[in-house]
């Protein structure tokens, strides 16, 4: 079968090759195309090509650019000449991805690929379209050489004050046809000329291999220690954050996410900077431990309680697995847990970064070399490469999490990447302790990571003064009161401390607990809407026993005083209905008598609706008339002008877009040098008449030189109302 | 993971487990760069501060040594971020140097032009600088040496001071060790100070700070100005110097309200130095009156503000600060360090006690109940009168009386804040009262007869808070104080800490009214001592009356 098109080529592929193609360009199979023709359309569509190009490494991209610059069909030899011998392998990879295909007469590239690669690929301008005497370049005048030097490596366009009044150097180039004007102020260096001057190479510098990672070797032991310390610290942070917010949940912003104030407060509480705090919040959020509830409160989830009960290895794995796949980047300048932190490239970069670290054992690469290596692997033309800070953020996050220690991949990181069991973490982490040491300065020290239940209880009755592997708690009146507020009694607290402390509880602390629990609850506060008092305790007893006033929800708080859940007005009405004779009292205890006639505060009068307009004064009317007259004159002038151009258009036959396209295509192929007369609708739909020299048709537009301005303009084909040859 | 005595916390505190066999070794290793914050019974808290790290650099320790020490003694993995921070902070020291220059006098030199550019542009520093000499050097006016060092410290670029100290006028001073020997820690303290150039030595009350001062003078071999809190202290210094050094009476002058002698070694009181005449501090000239080689600030935690300012101007003279309690309720501890110099020596009180150089002490808080009538009166008292009211309540008098009779055979000091209360107590107990208005001569006589045992009980006001040396006092009863002042409590305990001839322990009673702000203040007052490992026992006034102590 002779391969005449892209579809033909795809048809010629065997199953293995198709599978390879789908593997490298997975978007082609979702959904699965119905036949090869539709596969060809999909594979050469711009969105799919953009994806495919984005996934290339720097070297593959250079080879592809070189292929796009060559005129089709081209041979492998031609391509290698313009790049490097090793391009052979890159070529094979590009063919695998169907970004280059082998037609019956040589290699070709899919239709839209040049558009995807951009206008001036590798800084090369448009071809001249005619034979140029490239040998003459050697004898170019010095001034022209200077111009060429400036343009040879791109961009191929240069700005000049006025093409018609160009300097002698440029004038020579224009005359020889090496450079052509694009418009009055711009000239372009032709592709053949640039390639010739570049010594038939497309790129100045070839990036054939991934830049080497530079850095230092980290001693295995200190790496391990750093990783353990990072893992423990991070788990502690997560616990700390969620416990903190479990007690005082912040409100999420209207736009979503955590406000700066809450973030700062938390970062102060943790004693780390806000960047790190944001990351901790994000990790808790993406692993489902923290969420925003329907009332916009930020709260730990039930999942957190389950998480807490698990061994460290499972806890850590939970967080890491969420981190590995997330598209969120906490380093971005936006609210954590908010909607603006997602970047589609985040997880791809993360994966690449970790695999690069994995390739060098106990090695901590410098940020610059890591950046260069990642940027070589992931070119991302679409977004102009990967931002430097993403790499910095991800490295930083890996360190916080303990995936790396001192910048090198830790054993835990390796295990995670390999998908292995992480139980080793539990063995490496410091053993938990179940006791504290209470000292006479009212502090208690837990000399190691504290068991969960003990630390929960201590959190309730003491303030944390210092955090780390150990914890320093301080007992104070306020902290003990908090415990009592949470339902502990003084005896319970003391018993707990005696049980937990390895050292005797100092007497002053015992006294402090005793003093506070003695005072706690001495004062009672409750809600009441009104009160009923009477010096006759018998009457009070009668009321409280009276079934008719049960609705009042009365409670006797003193022999002569009842409190009531209704407000004073309702209470009086109910009492009156039950046959009592209550009177109201003001805040000073004075008897109130009801006012006979009621009055409200004076307010602004209500508005009225105006049915008719007021008659304007004579001067205003005169001015109005003058304005209308002036407007009338100017629009009459405009309509005359419109009529004149309409006349010229009238002679043009009106054509549909398809007819126009056909007419133009035929015209371009048969007699491309002749001028055309067209009608063209502008943005407002106003049709004007233009005389043009058509140049080419591409993606629904006609490029043509407009006789009126002498510039090359783009005309959208659907907007051309009619075409006629002159 | 090692099983060391040290736990390094991520907030830069170090917890030292003192029951660990390596704790003594570890304490020595971390002392050069970490500051002792609290020293209670089981775990001592040290803190890594920038100032501490820079001082360690100044004393010749490098970041590697600090990091190695932390890792070596740490029980758990040391947070990596902390190690990086240590290295970073320490590398900031010495990028700027103050040097003496034959042409420009004093210059600021840098090895890192960017840093110099940064500090030159700082608002606080620009006015202190002179002409820019070249890219790396800028002139500094010699009088601004203290100010610029302070500002640079605040900016985080501490300057290494190579300009040195003036030697002052030479004057031979020797320690005269006949029948006594300087203690090891005193020698360490004096040496630590001397090698550091200037700084503060912190030692518990009664641990012999005067000897440290004398040893420093022996190092300096130069004329010395000693600033003390009051005249009694001045005389004590003089007596001690006469006894411990080769100095003779003619060489030591007193500069106080009553005498104005300026001699090779001059002892002046803070009071006279800060006395204003026609709105001018006329006596501050004393600093310039002599080419002093050493200035000693006794009880440096009491340093008054005018002296602060003046001290900034005499940065080229060696300065030694002595104190037991470097806590100030006004939070100016930092100022003391930056003006006098960093802490050169600090040791937990309990450690000195263990060595037998201060008497073991028992602290007891006696809680008295207010009577119903007193409670009511307390509840209705004006807020500013409340403390005075509950601190001077009558019930306290009975308790004090009972305590005094229980310790009838011992030397007792009753200390209080309010004069009418003290007068009342003096009358009840039948013993003399010393207060601000008591003439100097009478004071000394009374103290002397107390020392000899003629009088067994003295009622004193805050004039006896500091520096009064009463070796045989074993019981102190505090009835009221300056609100929540931590250092006052510690200083008062200090009055009974001198080791007793028969090795007896001391007792410190603090009588407090229950359920009043007196009790709240007492809690705050006790913090410093609690942090030094003194555990208070709380007893009820009734226990006293029943003799259950």
Describe the protein's architecture and organization.
- The complex is a heterodimer of chains A (726) and B (549).
- With 726 residues, chain A is of the alpha+beta class.
- Chain A has seven domains: 6-118; 134-197; 215-428, no CATH class; 437-519, no CATH class; 530-585; 617-643; 651-725, SH3 type barrels.
- Helices cover 45% and strands 13% of the residues of chain A.
- In chain A, the strands form nine sheets. Chain A has a five-stranded antiparallel sheet with strand order 24-23-22-21-25.
- The mean pLDDT of chain A is 83.
- Chain B is of the alpha/beta class and 549 residues long.
- Chain B has four domains: 6-92, no CATH class; 96-161, no CATH class; 184-353, P-loop containing nucleotide triphosphate hydrolases (Rossmann fold, 3-Layer(aba) Sandwich), CATH 3.40.50; 359-545, P-loop containing nucleotide triphosphate hydrolases (Rossmann fold).
- Helices cover 39% and strands 21% of the residues of chain B.
- Chain B is built from 23 helices and 25 strands.
- Chain B has a seven-stranded parallel sheet with strand order 12-13-11-16-17-10-18, sandwiched between helices.
- In chain B, helix 7 (184-196) packs across helix 8.
- Chain B is globular and about 80 Å long.
- Classes of the chains: A alpha+beta (726), B alpha/beta (549).
- At the A-B interface, helix 12 and helix 25 of A face strand 2, helix 22 and strand 25 of B.
Question: Brief overview, please?
Answer:
The complex is a heterodimer of chains A (726) and B (549). Chain A is an alpha+beta fold and 726 residues long. Chain A has 7 domains: 6-118; 134-197; 215-428, no CATH class; 437-519, no CATH class; 530-585; 617-643; 651-725, SH3 type barrels (Roll), CATH 2.30.30.
